[in-house]
Structure formats: structure tokens, C-alpha cells
Amino acid sequence: MKLVSFLQDDQMRIGLIRGDEIIDLSKADPGLPTCMKALLEMGPAGLERVRACAGADATLLVQNVRLLSPVRHPEKVVCVGVNYADHAAESGMALPSEPVIFNKFPTTLRGHGDEIVLPPTSSEVDYEAELVVVIGTGGKNIRKEDALHHVAGYTCGNDVSARDWQKGKPGGQWLLGKSFDSFGPTGPFLVTADEIGDPGNLRICCRLNGKVMQDSCTDQLIFPVEELIAYVSQVASLKPGDLLFTGTPPGVGMARNPAVFLQPGDQVEVEIERIGILQNSVVGRR
Ligand code: ZN
């Protein structure tokens, strides 16, 4: 199933995609919530109720609604640095022996079609196409063998990064460099895990103004999805709706010669096989 969060009459809703339509789930089944996190908190039973709505006629056209980040208010947005071997090489970093974990504030999140806003305090804003895992069933000390059972689904993400903050500030301000408002576009859909199967064999691309900048496959992940879930959950309990950005492949702007940074008017697309295309435009410094 492809699920979305969207705005209708200024209210947040969740929907099920059917062709070019959205089934408004809380209209199709009044027992369903209007918030994706609340749906995921219902566990597998919630998704079964969604599945039962597939024939409903409470529909809207996708093109007529504003899509939001699939999970609007996750408790955590966890990210992984240096998780593609060839991206490590282009960044001049050694292969990590354990996952390099950082985070973004949930206030970074934006949906498909929303703007990435360049802040006045950075001149080196970069793109990073990433597979994003959406946690379904929470847990602590999740075993690697069980980890994929905790995944509700997947979406496309752009881990937008101000390199002059991430690398140029004392100590390296990873959190702040990754956390300017609008630096976390995700979407357009949450594609449920049953439709994806193995998340370790998906082609992932980033295009800037139509030009391919990143083109790789999640089989290049140094630490695959199940290892990341096991690693993080030994420290922090994972909760329904938590997002896990799994790292970016080679081709980021800072590693190019000359470097390429986002400019007002740019169009950025992240495409992941079987998940979709996340498109965002870049607007000038505010
Ligand atoms: Zn990243």
C-alpha cells in the first residue's frame, strides 16, 4: 500500500493511494485516525483496517491536495553518516567500524512539493538522497534477525545539509548543519514494507535540475537497515513513526570539483525504485 499524509481544508488527514486518487481514510473508516503516527501506533491491526478501505469511495484527486511529510510529527529522526562505501571515499573518510549516528530535528520535515529554504547563514547547502525507514512496531534491543518486522514501510528522503555548519564550526555542528527548517523533505508516500520486501536492493538516484547527481543502489549500504535498527535500539527505544535516514550514496555537491551547492530556483528530485519520486524546489535565503 502507498499511504500519504495530506492537508484538506487546513486539516491533516491520512490517505491510501489508488491510482491518481487518495482515499481519505478517516472518512472511509471513522475508526481510523487522521495522523500517520497514531495509525502506526495501532500496530498491524491499523494497517489491516486501512487495507479494508481499498474499495471505499471517499476519494480526492492527488493533484488537488497538498501532500505532507508521510509522518508529520515523529518522535525521532535518526540519521546515519557515511553509510555507502564509495561516498566515504569521495568524502575522504575511513570506512566506519560501527554506524555513525546523528539526528535531525523533526521541524526539518517537509513534504513532496514543499520548498527547501536556504538560510542566510549558510552558503554551502547540499543535497543527499536517502532511503528512509519508517518504524512501525517500536522496541528496545531489537535483534537484527527481527528488525525488519519493526518496519512499517519506506519513503524517499533528502538529508539537506549545510556543509559550512556541519564541517566548518567548532567540533563540527552535525545536528545544526542538518536541522535548518525545511532540511528534511520526505515522501511522497509511505510504501508499506510488504510491497518492498528486501530494502537492500533498491536503486536510488538524485537529480538536480534534471541532471543525475547520485545514482546507486542500497546494496552498497555498509550497514544495512536491519543492522541500523539493532544498533540504534540498543541505546534508544524506537517508537512507531520514528524515521531512520539510512545514509547517502556518492555524488553529493561538496565532493564535486568544482563543488555544487543548492541555489534559488533549483529543482531537486530523489527517486527510489518501487517507492517514488520526491520533488522539492529551492528558494532563496530567508
Ligand atoms: Zn545523510
SSE topology sketch:
Elements: E1 2-8, E2 11-18, E3 21-24, H1 25-28, H2 36-41, H3 44-51, E4 59-61, E5 66-68, E6 77-81, H4 85-90, E7 100-103, E8 109-110, E9 115-117, E10 125-126, E11 129-135, E12 151-158, E13 161-162, H5 163-166, H6 174-177, E14 184-192, H7 193-196, E15 203-208, E16 211-217, H8 225-233, E17 243-245, E18 267-272, E19 276-283
Parallel strand pairs: 6-17, 8-14, 9-19
Antiparallel strand pairs: 1-2, 1-5, 1-14, 2-3, 3-4, 6-7, 10-13, 11-12, 11-17, 12-14, 15-16, 15-18, 18-19
The protein binds zinc ion (ZN).
Q: If you had to describe this structure to a student in words, what would you say it looks like?
A:
The chain has 286 residues and is α+β, with helices and mostly antiparallel strands. The protein folds into two domains: 2-68, no CATH class; 77-283, Fumarylacetoacetate hydrolase, domain 2, CATH 3.90.850.10. It is 16% helix and 34% strand. The chain has eight helices and 19 strands. Strands 1, 2, 3, 4, 5, 6, 7, 8, 11, 12, 14 and 17 form a twelve-stranded mixed β-sheet that branches. Strand 1 and strand 2 (11-18) form a beta hairpin. The longest helix has 9 residues, at 225-233. It is globular, with a radius of gyration of 18 Å. The N and C termini lie far apart (37 Å). The model has no long low-confidence stretch (mean pLDDT 95). Bound molecules: zinc ion.
